[in-house]
Design goal:
With 781 residues, the protein is mostly beta strands. It folds into 5 domains: 17-389, 7 Propeller (Methylamine Dehydrogenase, Chain H); 420-476, no CATH class; 485-546, no CATH class; 554-616, no CATH class; 690-781, Immunoglobulins (Immunoglobulin-like, Sandwich). The protein is 1% helix and 43% strand. It is built from 1 helix and 61 strands. The strands form 17 sheets. Strands 12, 13, 14, 15 and 16 form a 5-stranded antiparallel sheet that branches. The protein has a 5-stranded mixed sheet with strand order 56-61-60-58-59, with no helix packed on it. It has a 4-stranded antiparallel sheet with strand order 8-9-10-11, with no helix packed on it. A hairpin with a 5-residue loop joins β47 and β48 (606-616). The longest helix is centred in the middle third of the chain and has 6 residues, at 323-328. The chain is flat and about 110 Å long. The relative contact order is 0.07.
């Protein structure tokens, strides 16, 4: 049986062209600026053409959001915050952890590959003309794209490649898409930085043509001092949008407000007739009206780098196509002390405005502004400042960038979907269009949806403000073939069992996640769900037991001295003994090493055991002493670190280090089970010149003796001591002659491991030249 009931959704239709009826813009992702104290950001769902606010979106970038939905159902397919790619469940898509750069204006873009049912492209431009790069992929700059295959991960999609470079760095943060005149192919359009070149790429069923077309038109886009720091590239920031009919392009830039309108031929990709416009300041967002006669921009007060001071929304009437007439038509729709950022046409033909608070940089507002009638001239466009409340999160500068598509919400047309069959014991939900005045099913029910579990013909009549419509669907029953599993009843531990499900089904899904048949599995309870060609499912289970091993162990001496051997004996009662020495007997004589044996029990299962014979090495006695012994200066003798031995000094001490204060011969004896070793040193204390004394060992083990390492110097004008580990990482530093190293990392409580460390000591004495010492100190515990 199917894991869940089949839901047949409606598909709204219209007499408009197919592109005008697309639902691919029905879900907008709005990143969370963090001011709303909520973990999730807002999203807009335009189902039924009225935006519903959902607070279920992950994403942290303050620009760069883009999403795409199924063009027929309007169901969300994927979205990006500019850095990651998320699936419809709001989970980072497989391989989608890093696919772009978060704050590339609002101008990342997701498009569907023409002619493909499952391949999509996410286009990501430079950030500030390459000035800002993704630190995870610093070489993957420039205009680039990631490819997504929605047939993977059970239909949730996976990123199959990322950072495919289309164009080297040096581009504005602008990217938009326009459908080709053939209704299938797509033009990708952007703008270079430092010149007046537009670039266009054509996307066809063959993929993205890697060779762009460059067209010089309009102003040179470049940010030059004074007024901003050199090489800031602020004018690389800005939006580029296409008119809904694909005949016009317009852009504005962030600092100097370079603003331009051009003609676009969506049959050839030609760009012409540039008209430069003025908004008297820096710009950010731009959008056309649905009827292609009005052009809107957001901008801020010229030269004000707070970015959010005295912001305005401007409207131009572009129907005359005359530069002077268009400039003179400029109307200020609204001005606010806080900021206006991205502009975006909704599928409901309203124009939405991203707002910012009166705080510098990426802080959004709790509302979106809405221009309810963007086709109307001047203030008749009906701008509402608090147009859409985001239910707590604060929005960001960007809005959902996409190819402009609209949907006709007026004509009452729907379908119950194609005829279908139901699996044994299953049911199907039949759904008509929601939120209408009345419903009448042939079952007598009067709701928008009904659940049926019997075969038959079902119809519904729906009435609402836009008229009355009806549809019929036929539901049939399906009979499944029996499903059984064959395989061994028990296996040895770790051995596979070949489990074979009955053939004849279209696909298999085992409880392991595997889709193979047969399945190689070990001991355990296993189940398989088989799906036939009609997508009906049935399940069978099978249990594989595990033989208990007889048990195999090795006895012998755990350690011997070099050159000695011991006898190792394996457990009795098994057969086919095999040692890693090559012997096939139950016992072997071996020296130090790691030894293994395997043997077969009565069930034919292979048992194994390991036994390590350690080597006791001869003891080592070696005394480490300072280079000189000076009167009045503490001195220490240390034994070189060596494992598994006992120490005895002729002073009676048994520690690894002893303090000495008088002349004489000092001897050290080291012993273990393999013998003894000794070393001695003669100590003579002298009256040393004032200099630098650096201990060569210390024992920070808590016994109160030789606990710290501290160079001894004469009064000095400047002093610095540092200690480094074997990789050259500095773990201690001081400029205070009275501060000692306690054998920890950087003054913390974490003890440094036993070993040899490198020190540097630099001293400038009150008299004499500066002195620098480099040497080694041994830490013993």
């Amino acid at each position: 049986m199917k894991p869940a009931a089949l839901i047949i959704g409606l598909v709204l239709l219209s007499a408009n062209a197919i592109r005008a009826q697309s639902k691919q813009n029905f879900n907008w992702m709005i990143n969370n600026s963090g001011l709303g104290n909520l973990p999730l950001a807002a999203a807009l769902d335009f189902d039924n053409c009225t935006p519903t606010v959902l607070n279920n979106t992950l994403g942290s970038g303050f620009e760069g959001q883009s999403s795409i939905s199924d063009s027929q159902s309007g169901q969300l397919l994927m979205y990006t915050d500019g850095l990651r790619m998320y699936n419809a469940n709001g989970v980072v898509m497989q391989n989608g952890q890093v696919v772009g750069i978060t704050n590339s204006q609002a101008q990342n873009l997701i498009v569907k590959k023409p002619g493909s049912a499952s391949i999509f492209y996410m286009i990501s431009p430079d950030t500030q003309a390459g000035l800002v790069v993704n630190t995870n992929f610093p070489t993957a700059s420039g205009l680039k794209y990631a490819e997504v295959d929605m047939s993977l991960d059970g239909g949730l999609g996976a990123v199959t490649s990322a950072f495919n470079v289309l164009k080297a760095p040096g581009n504005c943060e602008m990217i938009t898409g326009v459908y080709h005149a053939n209704g299938e192919d797509i033009w990708l359009i952007g703008h270079e930085y430092g010149n007046n070149n537009f670039y266009t790429f054509l996307v066809t069923a063959a993929g993205i043509n890697p060779v762009p077309t460059l067209t010089a038109a309009g102003p040179v886009v470049f940010t030059a001092p004074p007024g901003v720091p050199a090489n800031s590239n602020f004018d690389a920031i800005g939006e580029l949008k296409a008119s809904p009919d694909g005949s016009k392009l317009a852009f504005t830039t962030f600092f100097n407000g370079f603003t331009c309108l051009v003609d676009f031929d969506n049959a050839t990709g030609a760009i012409s007739n540039p008209i430069e416009l003025s908004i008297d300041g820096g710009g950010y967002g731009t959008s056309f009206s649905p009827d292609n006669t009005k052009l809107y921009f957001t901008g801020y007060e010229s030269g004000n780098l707070a970015f959010n001071v005295n912001n305005s929304i401007y409207q131009f009437d572009i129907s005359s196509n005359d530069a002077v007439t268009i400039q003179n038509s400029r109307t200020t729709i609204f001005t606010d002390v806080a900021g206006f950022k991205s502009l975006k046409l909704g599928p409901d033909r309203k124009l939405y405005v991203a707002r910012a608070t009166a705080v510098q940089l990426g802080n959004g507002a709790p509302y979106l502004g809405v221009i309810n009638e963007p086709d109307n001239a001047g203030l008749a466009c009906n701008y509402v400042h608090d147009g859409v409340f985001l239910n707590g999160p604060y929005g960001t500068w960007g809005l959902n960038n996409s190819i402009e598509d609209f949907f006709d919400c007026n004509a009452l047309q729907f379908t119950l979907g194609p005829d279908t069959v139901i699996c044994p014991g299953d049911s199907v939900v039949l759904s008509a269009i929601a939120d209408q005045s009345s419903y009448l099913w042939n079952t007598g029910q009067a709701t928008s949806s009904i659940t049926v579990s019997q075969a038959g013909t079902y119809w519904v009549e729906v009435s609402g403000p836009d008229g009355t419509a009806s549809d019929t669907v036929v539901v049939g029953n399906h009979v499944l073939a029996p499903l059984v599993i064959t395989g061994p009843a028990a296996v040895c531990p770790g051995a596979p069992a070949a489990l074979l499900a009955a053939p004849g089904f279209a696909s298999y899904q085992w409880s392991t996640g595997s889709t193979a048949n047969p399945l190689l599995a070990g001991a355990g309870a296993w189940s398989v769900t088989a799906t036939d060609t009609t997508t009906c499912q049935t399940t069978a289970s099978f249990t594989v037991a595990e033989f208990a091993l007889a048990g195999l162990s090795i006895t012998g001496e755990p350690a011997v001295c070099a050159g000695q051997v011991t006898e190792l004996v394996a457990s009795a009662g098994l057969s086919s003994y095999a040692w890693n020495t090559g012997a096939d007997s139950i016992a072997v004589s071996v020296g130090p090493g790691l030894w293994s044996v395997s043997a077969v029990d009565t069930n034919g299962c292979l048992n194994s055991a390991l036994f390590e014979v350690a080597q006791l090495d001869a003891p080592l006695a070696r005394i480490i002493s300072p280079d000189e012994f000076c009167d009045g200066v503490p001195a220490f003798l240390s034994a070189e670190d060596y494992p598994d031995q006992e120490l005895l000094w002729n002073t009676g001490g048994t520690e690894a280090s002893i303090a000495v204060g008088s002349n004489g011969t000092y001897a050290l004896t080291a012993s273990n089970a393999c013998g003894t070793a000794s070393d001695s040193i003669r100590v003579r204390f002298d009256n040393c010149d004032c200099g630098i004394f650096v201990p060569n060992s210390f024992t920070p083990n808590g016994d109160g003796t030789n606990e710290v390492w501290q160079p001894v110097v004469c009064p000095a004008l400047a002093y610095e001591a540092a200690v480094y580990d074997r990789w050259g990482i500095r773990i201690f530093q001081t400029t205070d002659p009275n501060e000692a190293w306690t054998g920890t990392f950087g003054g913390a409580d974490d003890p440094a491991p036993i070993g040899v460390y490198t020190y540097t000591v630099n001293v400038t004495e009150e008299q004499g030249a500066p002195k620098a010492l480099v040497g080694h100190v041994t830490l013993v515990r």
